[in-house]
Amino acid sequence: METITLDNGLTIAYREAGAGHEGPAVLLLHGWPTSSYLWRNVMPAIAQRRRVVAVDLPGFGGSDKPTDVRYSFGFFAEAIDGVVDRLGLGRVIPVGHDLGGPIALRWALDHPGRTAGLGLSNTLAYPEFSEAVRAFVADLNDPVRRDRLTSPEGLTEIMRAGVADPAVLTEETITAVHAPFATADARTALANAGLGLEYRLFVDLGKRLPELRMPLFIVYGVQDRVLPDVAETMARIERDVPGAAVTAIPHGGHFVMEDDPRTVGQKLAEFAAVLS
């Protein structure tokens, strides 16, 4: 893990591999409640062909976790801008999972000249939130349920629900998910990070999706119990973005990178290899 400090004073942690390759870099963006650790077994395949950077978004992993900010689309975009500039990534291929999906999508729509392609995995992109997402938001807004959800026990339950095969979750993985949220302030930041994206901008995202002109690749786990409507979401994106390439992994869950990192890595590497 390495860190950089942005102009706004935030320290951002990241993982990097494949330096020296030509072509646009792949920028991996995790979701809630994970970090760049989620991509650890996906990165090697991509690094054989492209530079790849996995970021700990602010509020997560080894990055700063302020409790006095709104974790808005703009806040996350500023962090991505800073990482791209500081690391000299040039044009990038953002790939977003879960919460990182709408963040990556909006960044790509707002930075078409800096985006060579876009990847999405087990995420949401429309304002018509499922019952599961509404329940998640309600839990984070209730002090008692929020404390439970962000506790080690709650995070463990989310991770176990998020894989198709619980046996893939080692103690090391569970510990890595817990570790960044050992303090009350860190858990407050985690809760805030799950609530900050503006609903009105999800409405905007849904309207703007047909404007997407860069190549789009989707890889997702079908057995998603965290976002059980994921197949419908991906089918809707396919209709809105003709030409999108989609790989559905039948034996994968929400955290498909834990269930089958080899396939996810290979597919993302193939997608990135043809972009310039």
What is the total number of structural domains? 1
Low-confidence residue ranges: none
Radius of gyration: 17 Å
Helix and strand sequence:
EEEHEHEHEHHHHHHEHEHH
Helix and strand content put the structural class at alpha/beta
Please state the average pLDDT score: 97
Number of helical stretches of at least 4 residues = 12
Number of distinct beta strands: 8
In percent terms, what proportion of residues is strand?
15-25%
Which geometry do the CA atoms define? Answer: globular
Major sheet: size, sense and barrel closure?
8 strands, mixed
CATH top level label: Alpha Beta
Strand order of the largest sheet: 1-2-4-3-5-6-7-8
Q: What is the CA-CA span between the terminal residues?
A: 27 Å
CATH topology: Rossmann fold
Q: Which superfamily, in CATH terms, is the homologous superfamily? A: Alpha/Beta hydrolase fold, catalytic domain
Q: How much helix, percentage-wise, in residues?
A: 40-55%
In CATH, the architecture is: 3-Layer(aba) Sandwich
Polypeptide structure, described:
This protein has helices at 43-47, 73-86, 100-110, 131-141, 143-149, 152-161, 171-178, 184-193, 199-208, 230-240, 256-259, 261-273, and strands at 2-5, 11-17, 25-29, 52-55, 92-98, 118-123, 216-223, 245-253. The chain is of the alpha/beta class and 276 residues long. It has a single domain (2-273), classed as Alpha/Beta hydrolase fold, catalytic domain (Rossmann fold, 3-Layer(aba) Sandwich), CATH 3.40.50. The chain has an eight-stranded mixed beta sheet, with helices on both faces. Helix 2 (73-86) packs across helix 3. The longest helix has 14 residues, at 73-86.
